Amino acid sequence: MAQIRFDLNPAKLTNPDLDIRYQLPDRLAAIPKSTMTDNGYDYSEDEPPVLMVFVNSEEPDTDLELAVRFLSTNTVLENKVLHAATIFTSDDAEEWKQRYPAC
Fold it and tell me: β-strand 51-57 against 2-8: which pairing, if any?
């Protein structure tokens, strides 16, 4: 199953509350016509580390569009997530392609 990964830079979050690792996937899954489901989180090995939030997706192109549209007009725990996010997609969870912001 395809995945979408949201890399969140905590320095760019207004409210860097770690509950965003649970709230973000829940909010994305609740978008009408979304096929996104929670698939956990991790931290990058970068310094400082970024929070990586993963969601499974049956329709990654459509779900990416839905997510960007939703996050452009909504906050999650008082955060404008798109200001702090780099978003990637993958078909195999090994090779990731940056999709937002566009390269």
Answer: antiparallel
